Amino acid sequence: MSLTVLIDYESGNLHSAEKAFERMAREADAGTVVVTSDADVVAKADRIVLPGDGAFPACAAALAASGMQDALIEVVENKGKPFLGICVGMQLMASWGREYTDTPGLDWVDGEVVHIAPSDPALKVPHMGWNDLVLDAAHPVFDGVQTGDHTYFVHSYHFQVADPTLRLAHVNYGGDVTAVVGRDTMLGMQFHPEKSQDVGLRMIRNFLTWAP
User: Fold this and answer.
1) Which CATH number applies to 3-209?
2) Hey, where are the domains in the chain?
3) Choosing from 127, 139, 158, 192, which is the catalytic residue?
4) CA distances from residue 77 to 85, 99, 192, 204, 207 in whole angstroms, order as listed
5) 3-state DSSP of 17-48
6) What's the chain's average pLDDT?
7) Sheet with strand 109-115: strands edge to edge
8) What is the pLDDT of residues 64-96, one digit of tens each?
9) 87 in catalytic set
10) Which position among 87, 112, 127, 170 bears the catalytic label?
11) CA of residue 165 relative to chain centroid, distance
12) Is the pTM higher than 0.90?
C-alpha cells in the first residue's frame, strides 16, 4: 500500500494539512497518510510532503537538525519519489533564501526567495488571502484546475525562479508572484492547498495519484 508522509520538523501546525491529505487519500484510494518526525519513516515513503510556516532560516535549520534533509535527498533526489513542498516547504526547494540572512536551500529549483515588493503601494505585505491562479504550464497536478481558480496565500517572501519553464503557475500581486514550481518528480506550492477549498483539495488528490 502506498505511503505518503507529511514531515513534522516543528515548522507549524500540521493538523489541517493532515486531515486534507487523509481525506483525499481515502477518496482516491491512494494509500496511507502519516505525519512523522522520523527520518527512517521518510526513507520508506512513496510520496513526501514538506509543509512549513515561519521564517526560511529557522525552517532550514530545523530541517537539517532533524535529519530530515539527508532523508529528503536520499528519497527525492536519489530515488525520485514524488515530493510536494507547501509554503516555506516550497521555498526550501530554492538555491537561496534571502530572509533576514542569506541561507542555502535544497537547491532543487534554481532561484532565490526574496521579499515581496508590490508595484502598488496600496497592496500590503504579507500577501494574505485569496488570489487567482494563472497557469503557466501543463502539469498533472492541474487536472481539473484552470486559470482564474483561486487559492489561499499567507506569505511575505516569494520564490524568484531562474528558469521560467520551472514556474508552473503564478498570481498577480503588484507583479508576478510564483505560485507553483515543478521539476522532475518535485512540486512546490506557495499557497496552502489544504486551506484552498475545492481547488486545493483537487490538487492534493492529483498529487496523491500522480505517477511521474
Assistant:
1) 3.40.50.880
2) 3-209
3) 192
4) 14, 25, 24, 21, 18
5) HHHHHHHHHHHHCCCEEEEECCHHHHHCCCEE
6) 96
7) 103-104, 94-97, 109-115, 157-161
8) 998 899 999 999 999 999 999 999 999 999 999
9) yes
10) 87
11) 17
12) yes
